[in-house]
């Protein structure tokens, strides 16, 4: 704040004019940013209370987008990760007004980070600053903030390394407090908690605690206390990149933990018990659900910290390649966690879809599958009958289910069979005479079992639909291979719970409502282009043809006897 006052005082002074004023203000902004150069892009923007004042003083402030922002309103500003946004108004802490080219609008402040230097890239300006002869006061301030005897970029790297080590030690302390302060005490009270309840509330946080202690030991070995900027910690992330996947289970369980915890907190004895645990462990005044959110935030913060570290690591540094690879690895971990979360959210929808299918036979879809790859209507011919049948096909990982539409209620489906995609090969069939079925075909593809005892001919209405199906079959194989490599699978508990929830939505003895269950399911998947923000009723109205308005009542209303 004092530095901010100093800047404003100099900027408004009448004797400072032209380039001299610009140089002084720019140099002191660098001093100011050096003071707040913690490698946490999310919080850095919020830790600048003087930002609105800088903008009002006429300074041009730029921010860099960390994530894509998809607009949900005409007043919002959309952008892609990496875009540079001019911040026009930052008086609101959560939503800022910005400009990109000719577009303006609101955007969330947490989606961006402020540029270290607003006028030019940090590397160029710091090099320029070292070459120029600044005043004694400025040089003294620069030395105070960046440290004696170190070039600016190396000092920046020191700051990032120290920040990583500091936050890692704090995180270990945090996990220890949860495991010893809460879980240990809860296990003593078998009259209040079951082991299943504790597993739901705390997830696998004890496993995370054991891993993080091992990870911190590796970081400490690579940390150079005398010269932190020489530390080579990139390899630590690379050595443990597969171990970080344990966060997937915790993140997926976290919503269930919040639900379970909120139920318990409605009873006073649990409120008092958790508060006693916190006080006994001498933890800060935050509720338990706040403490349990930390692992979710931590796994998201690693890519941000590594991005900052890479920015201030010279390409000639021995750690550069490892940090670059570590950044990509941790991004992949975050992407994998997000993908698994999406898959687990989908299993309830798949179970509900299955419960809406009439005459279902055999095992549940969830027994082998957890993701809908593609769906659509195709004409099916199978040997030996070779009879043409119009069917609705649903391609999941490992299997494809096909159903028949009801003649009158077109939104109702009847189960007709399935194909095991693990033992099928897909063959692109050219237009013309087909040898196996001895018929002329168009836009066709063939599914043949590896044993050769099962052959299905599928025909699409248009060439584009056929190509989309061929891509979908390739996507299904890639998905199966990826799941094998990453070890993704559903637990029996997850499968049973999903089917149980689906049965509750269709109680026994009650007729099923006339709905569009598979349309509702498809609209929530990733392949349709319809906007999911629209209410479902509105979406269906858009998809149906408009009826011609009748003039009968209009004409009746014009007659005099009916006017009164």
UniProtKB/TrEMBL annotation:
Gene that encodes the chain: arhgef4
Listed GO biological process terms: intracellular signal transduction
Residues of the DH domain: 156-340
Name the UniProt record assigns to this protein: Rho guanine nucleotide exchange factor 4
Domain PH: 371-478
InterPro entries cross-referenced by the UniProt entry: DBL_dom_sf, DH_dom, GDS_CDC24_CS, PH-like_dom_sf, PH_domain, SH3-like_dom_sf, SH3_domain, SOS1_NGEF_PH
One Pfam family of this chain: SOS1_NGEF_PH
GO CC list: cytoplasm
CDD domains: PH_Collybistin_ASEF, RhoGEF, SH3_ASEF
Alphabetized UniProt keyword annotations: Cytoplasm, Guanine-nucleotide releasing factor, SH3 domain
Any one GO molecular-function label of the UniProt entry: guanyl-nucleotide exchange factor activity
SH3 domain mapped to chain residues: 58-117
Top-rank lineage group of the source organism: Eukaryota
Alphabetized PROSITE patterns for the sequence: DH_1, DH_2, PH_DOMAIN, SH3
PANTHER family the record matches: RHO GUANINE NUCLEOTIDE EXCHANGE FACTOR 4, RHO GUANINE NUCLEOTIDE EXCHANGE FACTOR 4 ISOFORM X1
Location relative to the cell: Cytoplasm
Keyword GTP-binding annotated: no
């Amino acid at each position: 704040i004092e530095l901010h006052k100093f800047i404003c005082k100099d900027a408004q002074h009448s004797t400072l004019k032209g380039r001299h004023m610009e140089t002084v203000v720019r140099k002191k902004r660098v001093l100011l940013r050096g003071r707040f150069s913690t490698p946490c892009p999310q919080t850095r923007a919020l830790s600048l209370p003087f930002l609105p004042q800088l903008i009002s003083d006429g300074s041009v402030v730029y921010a860099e987008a960390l994530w894509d922002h998809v607009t949900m309103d005409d007043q919002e500003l959309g952008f892609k990760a990496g875009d540079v946004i001019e911040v026009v108004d930052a008086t609101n802490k959560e939503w800022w007004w910005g400009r990109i080219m000719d577009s303006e609008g609101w955007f969330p402040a947490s989606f961006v980070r402020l540029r270290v230097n607003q006028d030019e890239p940090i590397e160029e300006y710091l090099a320029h600053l070292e070459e120029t002869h600044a005043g004694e006061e400025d040089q003294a301030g620069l030395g105070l903030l960046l440290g004696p005897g170190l070039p600016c970029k190396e000092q920046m790297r020191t700051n990032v390394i120290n920040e990583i080590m500091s936050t890692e030690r704090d995180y270990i302390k945090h996990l220890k407090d949860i495991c010893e302060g809460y879980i240990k005490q809860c296990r003593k009270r078998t009259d209040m908690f079951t082991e299943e309840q504790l597993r739901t509330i705390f997830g696998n946080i004890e496993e995370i605690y054991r891993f993080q202690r091992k990870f911190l030991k590796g970081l400490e070995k690579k940390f150079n206390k005398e010269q932190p900027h020489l530390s080579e910690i990139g390899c630590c992330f690379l050595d443990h990149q597969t171990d970080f996947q344990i966060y997937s289970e915790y993140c997926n369980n976290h919503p269930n933990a919040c639900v379970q915890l909120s139920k318990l907190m409605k009873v006073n004895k649990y409120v008092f018990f958790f508060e006693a645990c916190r006080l006994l462990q001498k933890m800060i005044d935050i509720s338990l659900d706040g403490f349990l959110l930390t692992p979710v935030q931590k796994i998201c913060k690693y890519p941000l910290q590594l991005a900052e570290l890479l920015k201030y690591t010279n390409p000639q540094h021995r750690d550069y390649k490892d940090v670059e690879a570590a950044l990509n690895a941790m991004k992949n971990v975050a992407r994998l966690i997000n993908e698994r979360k999406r898959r687990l959210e989908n299993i309830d929808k798949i179970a509900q879809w299955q419960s809406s299918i009439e005459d279902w036979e055999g095992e549940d879809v969830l027994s082998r599958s957890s993701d809908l790859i593609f769906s659509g209507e195709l004409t099916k011919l199978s040997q030996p009958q070779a009879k043409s049948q119009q069917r609705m096909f649903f391609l999941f990982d490992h299997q494809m289910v096909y159903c028949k539409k009801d003649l009158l209620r077109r939104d109702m489906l009847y189960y007709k069979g399935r194909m095991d995609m693990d033992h099928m090969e897909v063959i692109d069939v050219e237009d013309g005479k087909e040898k196996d079925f001895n018929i002329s075909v168009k836009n066709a593809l063939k599914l043949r079992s590896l044993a050769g005892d099962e052959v299905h001919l599928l025909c699409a209405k248009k060439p584009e639909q056929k190509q989309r199906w061929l891509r979908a079959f390739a996507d299904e194989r890639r998905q199966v291979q990826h799941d094998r490599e990453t070890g993704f699978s559903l637990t029996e508990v997850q499968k049973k719970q999903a089917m149980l929830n689906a049965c509750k939505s269709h109680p026994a003895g009650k007729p099923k409502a006339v709905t569009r269950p598979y349309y509702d399911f498809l609209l929530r998947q990733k392949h349709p282009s319809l906007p999911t923000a629209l209410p479902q009723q509105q979406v269906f109205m858009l998809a149906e043809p408009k009826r011609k308005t009748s003039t009968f009542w209009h004409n009746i209303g014009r007659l005099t006897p009916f006017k009164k």
